Amino acid sequence: ASKESGGNIFKFYSNISKFSIPNKMKLEHGMHKALENKEFMLYYQPKVCAKTGEVSGAEALIRWKHPEDGMIMPDQFISLAEESGLIVPIGEWVLRKACSQLKEWKSKGYPLSRVSVNCSILQFQQVEMPDLINRVLQETGIGPECLELEITESMIMKDSERIISQLLKIRGIGVNVSIDDFGKGYSSLSALKGLPVTCLKIDRSFINNIPDDRHNVAVVEAIIKLAHNIGLGVVAEGVETLDNVNALKTMECDEFQGYYFEKPLPHDKFVQFLMQTHKWVELV
Ligand code: C2E
Ligand code: MG
Ligand code: MG
Ligand code: MG
Fold first, then answer.
1. Phi, then psi, of 208 in degrees rounded to 5
2. Any atom of ligand 1 within 6 Å of the Cβ of 94
3. Which atom of ligand 1 lies closest to the CA of 82?
4. Where is each EAL domain found (predicted)?
5. How many CA atoms lie within 13 A of 168 on its CB side?
6. Tens digits of per-residue pLDDT, 217-272?
7. Atom 11 in ligand 1: which residue has the minimum CA distance?
8. What is the DSSP track for the chain?
9. pLDDT in tens, 1-58
């Protein structure tokens, strides 16, 4: 079949599914039921402010608590949810859940100002996406500045006109947008200028071996300088060691996220964590 597709060979391969048909049907059916039966849940991982050492926000990360198979991680089902279109209702659930959770925490006085939600390209391609965001903000009663959407470079590269027009509307609402896994997608740094986003999240593959890897130090340094020059904030993801932290501090990275601080936690554990009023003194 690859021969027949001729000049379209890349298209062919990019459309190929990593799931076999029976597995696919089973998993798709399972995801439908999971939505109905409320088997999805959100874990939360803190983001830490480099200047104050305090928690500045949290990223919501989906988990599937399957009744028979136990906990299923997003890497095992998000791509099929995208293939099948189910990511649209799943993503809507994630958005609503994260916003209403933040509202509840805020009303209880827990110190958390912002929640970040991962978005798939399919959600962004829905014309009504900006309306949906508006509606969810209204329903849950959190301000737009309390919400951040995480998108990837590859989304912008795949369908840039449409994605940028949606980004403009979403930024118009006042919602923050960060580019996740930045550096992995080979988009040129200059292409960033003028993009309607607020923040770059540097991919963890550049972070977890600094300062030992001199090459990555140079890359991270360049990304941070450029981001600041064009008015964007910078988050480092996958921060695992104090050496990583110190290197990033020196490079004036704005926020950190990673196992060094805390892993993603389910609701109750995350609340416990917030109650302990964390402050990382090594940052101050
Ligand atoms: P991501 O958005 O880049 O999320 C960061 C991932 O890195 C999370 O994996 C997190 O648990 C992991 N991580 C955090 N700190 C560290 C660290 O210090 N070291 C290492 N090695 N890993 C760390 P997770 O939760 O398995 O999520 C994987 C990916 O699945 C996410 O990557 C995101 O692309 C996707 N995803 C998760 N939740 C959602 C969702 O609600 N919607 C969509 N569309 N995608 C989601
Ligand atoms: Mg993310
Ligand atoms: Mg990421
Ligand atoms: Mg990542």
1. -75, -5
2. yes
3. 44
4. 24-278
5. 6
6. 999 999 999 999 999 999 999 999 999 999 999 999 999 999 999 999 999 999 99
7. 264
8. -TTTTGGGHHHHHHH--SS-HHHHHHHHHHHHHHHHTT-EEEEEEEEEETTT-BEEEEEEEEEEEETTTEEE-GGGTHHHHHHHSTHHHHHHHHHHHHHHHHHHHHHTT-S---EEEE--HHHHTSTTHHHHHHHHHHHHT--GGGEEEEEEHHHHHHSHHHHHHHHHHHHHHT-EEEEEEETSS---GGGGTT-S-SEEEE-HHHHTTTTT-HHHHHHHHHHHHHHHHTT-EEEE----SHHHHHHHHHTT--EE-STTT---EEHHHHHHHHHT--B-GGG-
9. 333 333 443 434 445 677 777 788 889 999 999 999 999 999 999 999 999 999 999 9
Distance CA 31, CA 40 (A): 9
Measure 202 CA to ligand 4 centroid, in angstroms.
9
The pTM of the full predicted model, rounded to 2 decimals, is: 0.93
Query: Cα–Cα distance between 141 and 82 in angstroms, integer?
Result: 29
CB 42 within 8 A of CB 80: no
Q: Which of 78, 86, 136 to mutate to test the pocket of ligand 1 (most atoms within 8 A of CB)?
A: 78
Among 65, 80, 87, 118, name the best residue to mutate to test ligand 1's pocket (greatest count of ligand atoms within 8 A of Cβ).
118
Among the listed residues 87, 194, 100, the one whose alpha carbon sits nearest the alpha carbon of residue 147: 100
Q: How far apart are CA 207 and CA 183, in angstroms?
A: 11
Confirm or reject: Cβ of 75 under 6 Å from ligand 1.
Answer: yes
Prediction ipTM score: 0.98
Quick check: 189 and 223 in contact, CB under 8 A?
A: yes
Structure tokens at 8: 């379209």
Answer whether 152 contacts ligand 1 (Cβ < 6 A): no
